């Protein structure tokens, strides 16, 4: 079926040979139009363009992938109709390599193809965000230390004024913020160099010429005009027959003064008029019998105007011009010093990145810019000219989110300089919501104001027909934004050209009220909140939303995408949009879940606060540095340590003078016995006596509870020592996997509530560890520090997303995340949440056009107050923030296809809009819009007077009643089921009884481990076998052998034997000396630790190398048929492991020390360092283990096992099993 395009869409598709700016409103089909334009250019008979000669730039990878897919599908569809079309066949191939990409990917393409033109190394890689934060912190510290050493006057003055006595963190923050902000400019150094110029002013004329001063005068002009309109409304009220005519004289006097303010052109004019401003007392008429409401309204208007003008005087007219200029001159050296400090950091940071062959996304853009534009002349380079010839047209999607760097890059590869305009830009400035990422919507606005609608080389087209939403949604959005979005706040005028026009076709419903837009308010005092058992107003609002969702499931219809017919709404048709997920998403998720509504949210933060990730990170911190109390306590109190708070306190009480970990070690060795330390150190290790009570060395039997705690400590330390030995040479992701496996924590988290989510979080941590290992930082110490820096700089991640797109759940997401998406039913919640104005309260204010604002500091009196420029920039950013919030609200409301519901929570019922101020549909006054603290401040005055919206106010008692009714219905349903069961006939009864009484025949299997190590099997056998007391092995000096040292010695021997070169050793005349040399080499390479080296006796290894067995191994090594430390996982019936178990498979895992192929068969060797009394003991202990090794290797290699041998270093002999 062919697509019918509107006249405007057809223009967008067909117009050529010009710069074209398309202002595409929400739901206007801009992507479809852009795809059709690409296809039409490809098929143009007069001037066809290959698809790989168009540069199509989007701002997300997902958007680029969707665009490529849609273009490809459009070409394939045409090919189906014209299979022999040669040009279409060619394009179907070229589309795979077409430059349909993000701006970052295009810049990377430029860098990779032209790196040599600016002397870049080709080995540069993109740095991990966490790696950059670490590097930034390191470089910042180095730069600050260097500045303190140099002691320049400017820096010391800056530090004295803006650092505190205890920390220079504020100064470092200034430096890093300035650096990040500067990167949004094409040439950051030039921007930094320009900053002092804003403060180099000589007189009042210089002040008036500044753009920031003109901005202030514009703001004051808006206020004056707004107050004049309000006062004219007050005069009209006074002139009413029932109005307060006794106030008329004072109001007219006020109007005359406001008219004078409106005529002001300069700062001096405003200063003069405001200094003369006075408000006369209102007239009194004690016999007044007119409208009290109008009387109060006039008084309210006058008070608002008076108070607002008073604040203006306090904020901007608190000093004369000479004092103001003096303050600016005083701040100037600080601006210069701060700019110099930022330049020093930028230079050092860049050098450090180049040293490590790193680049970030900002570097990619700036490298591309350096390749394409000459920094001195600002003219395109030869590379730019080459690309200019390649690309017939530059298409930029989401143009409203461009910044200055991207604008300069894309302009450089266009043909504008040749007089051939070939840039196609599409976007919607009303949806520019990435100011926090330094997007510059003013680029779009400037072009929109400069381009013409008529035929020209720079033309603009408006696409304002909405093909997404029902008429009710479109009209509801229009009614709000006609009144609150205007050019004086955010530079966007919501007029007939910007408004939405319904173009979608939906099936009609019998009840049109089903699709009416709604505003739901949860209103409660603090006392009512407590009575409703609600912890916050957010929770009350969430419960209200849950109640409304349950109603919708009973009544709401939506259009099915497949059939085009109306059907009942489903959970997956509903989305809840929030301005910020922090503090809100979890509350809504909890409320919906408790109401029986399946819901899902993917947060952008909170990953590091999940219990499973905190526990693993604490364990890694402890492995890195054992003397940390908080990680130690966290791990011991977790399932890994299995200790209660009381037990942790008991350990601390036994040893109060040491680090907690040392106290744990002492407790494991001595318990809480009060034996003298000197005697304890000579005592034998603790042993378990026949009475089952543990005895501290040299002491009396311990109580059973203390014995159990001591055993926990011993077990934990043995496991800890084993893991810590791995940290020197084990990759971080492998170490994490080992921790999960050895501690059993992996199984534990999967058994926890939301186990699948928790396991996904752990898998995500493994991915982060693998990514870290690719950075320039290495080792556990740096990984722990890497994570700490991520948390410090709030580089958090959302939890792993395990929900599929088609899952039937209500989705909870941020408004920013929803951009570009659409949903049948949209809840825009949290409208009462206060706007975040943190950036206007900072000690350093940054503005893209007006430089920076700093406080003025009187060093003698130690008084700090905002500098004049800073005050103005605070106001500018405040206005821009309000404009951004308006655009965010617009994005939220335009996601709805069929039903729009706004929700909010308030402590007190909102005041109804004042009558007489304005008619419904007329613009909201500037002062109210500017000072709005939440979305509700904008939308409630509009909706409260609009009959098309359904306004409902919920009180806690209403929600409690509704929830109680729903609960009663659920209970009634349950009783009905029970009654059916009781009254069923015998046949039904038997069927139900059989189902409900069924018992799983292998219930005992549910308690079995699904994976078990060979070592665990050995331990199970040791519990059965009675061990003789072995002779003392010669690995340790007498009296110094402990269980922990024995385990460490075994690991050390295995590691050395894994590294030994058998051929070299066999050929050596002095094998003991050769082994010593090889061990020293292992230590130098970091393959073993000093502690491991000291635990290995080279003479005993040399004795093994003198055996015929070693000679056979050397020959296998020469044949390349020798295999060391081979891991395996094998499935065997559970009955072979657990007595009485079923034939269900369990996994056996282990590591074969060494095997080789000899005459086509396998020879398996296992090293043992156990101190044993004879061969039989080893054979009984390890026969099962060697048999499993043989079975696993036979399965894996298909070869038979020839021999299974144990070599005992204790007995110094080989034992065939």
Q: How is this structure best described in words?
A:
- The protein has 1217 residues and is of the alpha/beta class.
- 51% of the residues lie in helices and 13% in strands.
- The protein is built from 47 helices and 31 strands.
- It has a seven-stranded parallel sheet with strand order 15-18-14-19-24-11-25, with helices on both faces. Strands 3-2-6-7-1-8 form a six-stranded parallel sheet, sandwiched between helices. Strands 26, 27, 28, 29, 30 and 31 form a six-stranded mixed sheet that branches.
- Strand 22 and strand 23 form a beta hairpin.
- Helix 24 crosses helix 33.
- The radius of gyration is 38 Å and the shape is globular.
- The termini are far apart.
Radius of gyration over all CA atoms, rounded? 38 Å
Report the sheet-strand fraction: 5-15%
Number of helical segments with 4 or more residues: 47
The chain-level structural class is: alpha/beta
Largest sheet: 7 strands, parallel
On the 0-100 scale, what is the average pLDDT?
A: 86
In oligomeric terms, what are we looking at? single chain
Q: How many β-strand runs?
A: 31
Strand order of the largest sheet: 15-18-14-19-24-11-25
Helix content: 40-55%
Q: What is the first-to-last residue Cα distance?
A: 78 Å
Outline type: globular
The poorly predicted ranges are: 674-701, 1023-1044
């Amino acid at each position: 079926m062919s697509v019918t395009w509107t006249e405007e869409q057809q223009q967008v598709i067909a117009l050529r040979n010009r710069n074209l700016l398309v202002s595409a409103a929400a739901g206007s089909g801009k992507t479809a139009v852009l795809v059709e334009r690409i296809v039409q250019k490809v098929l143009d008979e007069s001037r066809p363009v290959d698809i790989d000669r168009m540069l199509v730039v989007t701002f997300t990878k997902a958007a680029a992938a969707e665009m490529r897919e849609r273009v490809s599908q459009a070409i394939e569809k045409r090919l189906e109709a014209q299979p022999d079309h040669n040009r279409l066949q060619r394009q179907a191939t070229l589309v795979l390599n077409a430059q349909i990409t993000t701006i970052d990917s295009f810049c990377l393409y430029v860098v990779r193809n032209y790196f040599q033109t600016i002397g870049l190394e080709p080995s540069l890689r993109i740095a991990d965000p966490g790696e950059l934060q670490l590097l930034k912190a390191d470089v910042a510290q180095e730069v600050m230390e260097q500045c303190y050493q140099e002691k320049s006057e400017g820096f010391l003055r800056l530090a004295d004024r803006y650092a505190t006595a205890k920390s220079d963190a504020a100064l470092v923050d200034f430096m890093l913020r300035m650096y990040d902000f500067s990167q949004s400019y094409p040439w950051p150094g030039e921007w930094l160099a320009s900053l002092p110029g804003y403060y180099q002013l000589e007189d009042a004329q210089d002040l008036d010429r500044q753009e920031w001063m003109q901005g202030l005068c514009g703001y004051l002009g808006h206020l004056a005009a707004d107050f004049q309109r309000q006062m004219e409304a007050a005069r009209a009220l006074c002139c009413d027959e029932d109005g307060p005519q006794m106030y008329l004289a004072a109001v007219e006097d006020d109007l005359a003064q406001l008219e004078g303010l409106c005529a002001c052109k300069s700062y001096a004019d405003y200063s003069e008029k405001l200094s003369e401003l006075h408000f006369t007392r209102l007239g009194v008429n004690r016999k007044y019998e007119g409208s009290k409401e109008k009387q109060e309204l006039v008084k309210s208007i006058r008070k608002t105007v008076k108070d607002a003008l008073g604040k203006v005087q306090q904020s901007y007219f608190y000093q004369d011009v000479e004092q103001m200029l003096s303050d600016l001159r005083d701040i100037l050296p600080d601006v210069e010093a701060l700019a110099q400090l930022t330049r020093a950091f930028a230079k050092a940071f860049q050098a450090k990145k180049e040293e490590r062959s790193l680049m970030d996304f900002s570097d990619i853009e700036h490298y591309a810019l350096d390749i394409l534009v000459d920094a001195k002349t600002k003219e395109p380079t030869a590379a730019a000219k080459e690309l200019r010839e390649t690309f017939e047209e530059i298409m930029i999607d989401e143009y409203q989110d461009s910044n200055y760097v991207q604008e300069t890059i894309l302009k450089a590869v266009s043909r504008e300089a040749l007089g051939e305009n070939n840039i196609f830009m599409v976007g919607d400035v009303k949806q520019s919501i990435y100011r926090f990422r330094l997007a510059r919507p003013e680029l779009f606005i400037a072009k929109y104001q400069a381009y013409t609608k008529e035929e020209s080389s720079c033309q603009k087209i408006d696409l304002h027909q909405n093909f997404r939403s029902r008429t009710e949604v479109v009209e509801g959005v229009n009614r709000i934004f006609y009144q609150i979005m205007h050019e004086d706040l955010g530079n966007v005028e919501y007029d007939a050209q910007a408004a939405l026009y319904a173009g979608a076709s939906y099936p009609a419903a019998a009840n049109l009220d089903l699709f009416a837009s709604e505003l739901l308010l949860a209103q409660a005092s603090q006392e009512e909140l407590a009575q409703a058992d609600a912890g916050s107003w957010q929770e009350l609002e969430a419960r209200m939303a849950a109640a409304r969702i349950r109603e919708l499931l009973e009544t709401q219809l939506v259009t099915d995408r497949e059939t085009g017919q109306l059907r009942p709404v489903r959970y997956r048709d509903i989305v809840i949009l929030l301005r910020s997920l922090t503090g809100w998403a979890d509350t809504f998720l909890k409320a919906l879940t408790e109401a029986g509504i399946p819901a899902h949210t993917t947060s952008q933060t909170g990953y590091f606060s999940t219990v499973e990730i905190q526990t693993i990170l604490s364990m890694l911190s402890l492995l890195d540095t054992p003397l940390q109390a908080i990680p130690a306590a966290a791990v011991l109190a977790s399932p890994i340590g299995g200790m209660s708070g009381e037990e942790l306190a008991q350990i601390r009480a036994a040893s109060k003078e040491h680090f907690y970990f040392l106290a744990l070690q002492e407790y494991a060795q001595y318990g809480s016995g009060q034996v003298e330390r000197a005697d304890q150190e000579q005592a034998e290790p603790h042993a378990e006596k026949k009475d089952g009570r543990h005895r501290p060395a040299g002491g009396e039997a311990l109580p059973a509870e203390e014995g159990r705690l001591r055993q926990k400590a011993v077990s934990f330390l043995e496991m800890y020592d084993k893991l810590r030995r791995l940290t020197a040479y084990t990759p971080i992701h492998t170490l994490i996997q080992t921790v999960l496996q050895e501690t059993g924590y992996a199984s534990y988290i999967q058994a926890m509530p939301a186990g699948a989510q928790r396991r996904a979080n752990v898998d995500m941590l493994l991915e982060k560890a693998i990514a870290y290992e690719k950075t320039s930082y290495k080792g556990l110490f740096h990984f722990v520090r890497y994570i700490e820096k991520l948390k410090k700089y709030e580089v958090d991640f959302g939890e792993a997303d395990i929900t599929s797109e088609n899952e039937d759940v209500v989705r909870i997401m941020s408004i920013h995340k929803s951009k570009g998406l659409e949903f049948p039913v949209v809840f825009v919640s949290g409208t009462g949440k206060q706007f975040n104005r943190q950036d206007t309260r900072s000690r350093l204010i940054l503005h893209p056009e007006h430089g920076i604002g700093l406080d003025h500091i009187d060093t003698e009196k130690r008084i700090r107050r905002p500098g004049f420029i800073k005050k103005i920039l605070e106001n500018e950013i405040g206005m821009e923030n309000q404009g951004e919030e308006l655009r965010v609200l617009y994005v939220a409301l335009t996601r709805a296809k069929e039903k729009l519901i706004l929700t909010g929570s308030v402590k007190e019922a909102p005041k109804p809009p004042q009558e007489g101020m304005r008619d419904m549909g007329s613009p909201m006054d500037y002062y109210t819009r500017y000072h709005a603290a939440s979305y509700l401040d904008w939308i409630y005055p509009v909706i409260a007077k609009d009959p098309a919206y359904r306004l409902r106010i919920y009180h806690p008692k209403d929600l409690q009643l509704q929830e109680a009714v729903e609960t009663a219905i659920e209970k009634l349903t349950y009783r009905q089921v029970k009654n059916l069961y009781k009254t069923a006939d015998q046949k039904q009864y038997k069927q139900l009884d059989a189902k409900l009484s069924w018992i799983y025949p292998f219930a005992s299997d549910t308690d079995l481990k699904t994976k078990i190590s060979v070592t665990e099997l050995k331990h199970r056998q040791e519990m059965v076998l009675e061990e003789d007391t072995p002779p003392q092995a010669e690995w340790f000096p007498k009296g110094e052998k402990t269980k922990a040292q024995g385990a460490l010695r075994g690991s050390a021997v295995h590691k050395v034997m894994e590294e030994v070169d058998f051929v070299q050793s066999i050929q050596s005349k002095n094998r003991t000396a050769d082994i010593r040399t090889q061990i020293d080499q292992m230590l130098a390479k970091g393959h073993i630790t000093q502690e491991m080296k000291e635990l290995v006796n080279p003479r005993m290894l040399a004795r093994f190398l003198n055996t015929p067995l070693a000679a056979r191994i050397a020959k296998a090594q020469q044949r390349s048929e020798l295999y060391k430390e081979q891991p395996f996982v094998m499935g065997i019936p559970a009955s072979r492991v657990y007595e009485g178990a079923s034939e269900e498979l369990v996994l056996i895992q282990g590591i074969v020390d060494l095997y080789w192929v000899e005459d086509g068969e396998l020879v398996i060797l296992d090293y043992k360092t156990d101190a044993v009394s004879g061969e039989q003991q080893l054979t009984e202990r390890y026969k099962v283990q060697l048999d499993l090794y043989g079975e696993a290797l036979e399965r894996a290699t298909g070869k038979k096992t020839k021999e299974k041998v144990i070599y005992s270093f204790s007995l110094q002999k080989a034992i065939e099993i």
